[in-house]
Write a structure and sequence with these properties.
There is one protein chain. The chain folds into three domains: 42 residues, no CATH class; 239 residues, Aldolase class I (TIM Barrel); 45 residues, no CATH class. The chain has 16 helices and 14 strands. The strands form three sheets. Strands 3-4-5-6-7-8-9-10-11 form a nine-stranded mixed sheet. Helix 11 runs parallel beside helix 13. It binds iron/sulfur cluster (SF4). The site of iron/sulfur cluster (SF4) has 11 residues, from loops.
């Protein structure tokens, strides 16, 4: 039994109630709990009610088993129709098929989707629509030019000291905005020993590589022993210092973060993890527990999100996501401008909006919670950070600055400092500020 604070009658009075760990609270009670208490609950009420309705005979063990979840993914129109009311655009998008990547959604993640609102943020990220078939100028299947920076299949070497190793092309749930939609889900990039050995060999004979990002597809889709083997082979290379795993599992299949997986990760420390979350609705008690297991095992967690139109492109949603991630011991890290992959126009905001959104967070939330907003430069130029210009310019011997509340301040910074030999900043001249 765990004490839980509940509010009754909407009057703000707080009372301690007892919550049985085995019984999820009902939805109304859950919504009234403070954020941290919600996330510390054992299970999400939304998931429990979905499971009661669609999988009444499935046991706790089965529902909590990631292999069961992976085996029961929603992939076909007929299956989806059993649980959600599809819009005409969704139905046509699924029927047309053959698009950039397949449809697959774990039962757990499906339980978080609105069954009747096609505009719900999470639903838009995993259910295709006809918009995917609209191609605009500037879009490309491989906008980041990864294929041209690939010395061996499944390895991208763009920065001098880092490589991206694509372990496999499989994900348990496919995101409609995926940068690698040209490769994920088509079964061509498997975790075969022969292919991966070529990648290890390249890394071994390139001593400048000190950082390996293991991604995919989702590398945590691999069985424990395969992941263990990959991490062992990487750790055998003396100049590989830093290993990161990029995954969306804590959001789409938190059941994957098992004690056995934790044992594998702990063997190969330091292992960092970039976890992919895009919306606060993903930050459930199940995700909270998964991230807690990783954090307790000493895995530093950083979040990567993609800015998506109609999903998280407003300050309130982004702030709520940020606050929930901080409670989950996940530090918000990169907020990506959505890459111009083919058929992505319905997801892409303007860059100006992205800059303004992050500006709306800075100073209004914990400093740890301010994302670095980046554009991954089309053509393979790498990540370019973007932010509001807080340095307004120079006025004589002062630098004129703007704070989070949009007020102006001056910092004495005589131009004479340039005589120290440092190149002076090129700033616009402002007067009377
Ligand atoms: S989890 Fe990552 S790799 Fe998989 S579909 Fe989503 S964005 Fe793409």
């Amino acid at each position: 039994m765990q004490p839980v604070v509940s509010r009754e009658g909407g009057g703000g009075e707080e009372a301690l109630a007892e919550l049985d760990d085995d019984q999820p609270p009902d939805s109304a009670k859950f919504q009234c709990m403070p954020r941290l208490r919600q996330m510390q609950s054992s299970r999400s009420p939304k998931s429990e009610s979905f499971r009661a309705r669609h999988f009444p005979s499935v046991s706790d063990e089965e529902w909590g088993d990631w292999r069961w979840q992976a085996a029961h993914r929603y992939r076909k129109l007929a299956d989806l129709e059993q649980v959600i009311e599809l819009s005409s655009s969704e139905r046509a998008g699924i029927e047309r098929g053959g698009s950039m990547l397949p449809v697959a959604i774990t039962p757990y993640y499906m339980s978080l989707l609105s069954p009747d609102d096609p505009t719900q943020g999470l639903r838009r990220t995993v259910i295709p629509t006809l918009h995917e078939f609209v191609r605009l100028p500037g879009e490309a299947d491989d906008p980041l030019g990864e294929d041209s920076h690939s010395p061996v299949p499944g390895l991208v070497h763009r920065y001098p000291d880092r490589v991206l190793l694509l372990a496999l092309d499989y994900c348990t749930t496919y995101c409609r905005y995926c940068t690698r939609s040209r490769v994920v889900g088509n079964g061509e990039l498997n975790a075969s020993q022969a292919r991966l050995e070529r990648a290890f060999e390249y890394i071994r004979r390139t001593p400048s590589i000190r950082d390996v990002l293991l991604s995919g597809g989702d590398p945590l889709s691999l069985k424990d022993d395969k992941l263990d083997w990959i991490l062992t082979r990487l750790r055998e290379i003396p100049h590989v210092e830093f290993i990161r795993i990029g995954t969306k599992m804590p959001a789409v299949l938190p059941q994957r973060i098992t004690p056995q997986l934790i044992d594998v990760l702990k063997k190969h420390h330091p292992v960092w993890m970039s976890v992919h979350f895009v919306h606060p609705d993903e930050c459930t008690p199940e995700s909270f527990a998964a991230c807690a297991r990783l954090a307790d095992a000493g895995v530093p967690l950083g979040a990567q999100a993609v800015l998506l139109k109609g999903v998280n492109d407003d300050v309130d949603t982004l702030r709520e996501l940020t606050h929930r991630l901080l409670l989950m011991r996940v530090r918000p890290y990169y907020l990506y401008q959505c890459d111009p992959i083919s058929g992505s126009a319905h997801f892409r905001t303007t860059i100006e909006q992205g800059v303004e959104l992050v500006r709306g967070l800075r100073g209004h939330t914990t400093g740890y919670g301010v994302w670095t907003y980046v554009v991954d430069a089309p053509g393979g130029g790498g990540k370019i950070p973007l932010q509001h210009q807080y340095v307004l310019g120079r006025d004589g011997d002062d630098i004129v600055l703007e704070n989070f509340a949009r007020e102006q301040y001056r910092y004495p910074d005589p131009e004479a400092h340039a005589s120290t030999g440092m190149r002076p900043m090129r700033l616009p001249v402002v007067t009377g500020a």
